[in-house]
């Protein structure tokens, strides 16, 4: 049986290059819809940052992690931009356009 962090890492590995998902979306995919903060913590301690693309996860407004564990928010923005996801600054935080770049996946009930 997979623990929650393993489920998070497996779900995040399926986010396609050039797309982003939200913490809540990943929580729902893991069967724990009220665990968005736990998803954030799991990604903060990501044991394989080059393999598990935690940079593809943003908040529900498209804001990048202000405390991105692997180089800060500008590093997360750089990784996304290399994948074709433009980021923009608003009020000192980086954002992506969720209408254009959100990963659309069916969540099984």
Describe this structure as you would to a colleague:
- With about 110 residues, the protein is an alpha+beta fold.
- Helices cover about 35% and strands about 10% of the residues.
- Strand 3 (about 90) and strand 4 (about 95) form a beta hairpin.
- The longest helix has 10 residues, at about 5-15.
- The radius of gyration is 13 Å and the shape is globular.
- The two termini are about 20 Å apart.
- About 40% of the residues are buried.
- The model has no long low-confidence stretch (mean pLDDT about 90).
Detail the topology: elements first, then pairings.
Blueprint: H1 4-13, E1 21-22, H2 23-29, H3 36-44, E2 57-58, H4 73-82, E3 88-90, E4 93-95, H5 98-101
Mean pLDDT: 92
Q: Numbering strands along the chain, what is their spatial order in the largest sheet? A: 1-2
How much of the polypeptide forms β-strand, as a percent range?
Answer: 5-15%
Q: What structural class is derived from the secondary structure elements? A: alpha+beta
Write the element-wise H/E pattern from the N-terminal end onward.
Answer: HEHHEHEEH
DSSP E strands, number: 4
> Which parts are unreliable, with pLDDT below 50 for 5 consecutive residues or more?
none
N-to-C CA distance? 19 Å
Instruction: Please tally the helical runs, counting DSSP H or I stretches of 4 or more residues.
Output: 5
Write down the Rg. Answer: 13 Å
The amount of helix comes to 25-40%
> What is the 3D shape?
globular
Largest sheet: 2 strands, parallel
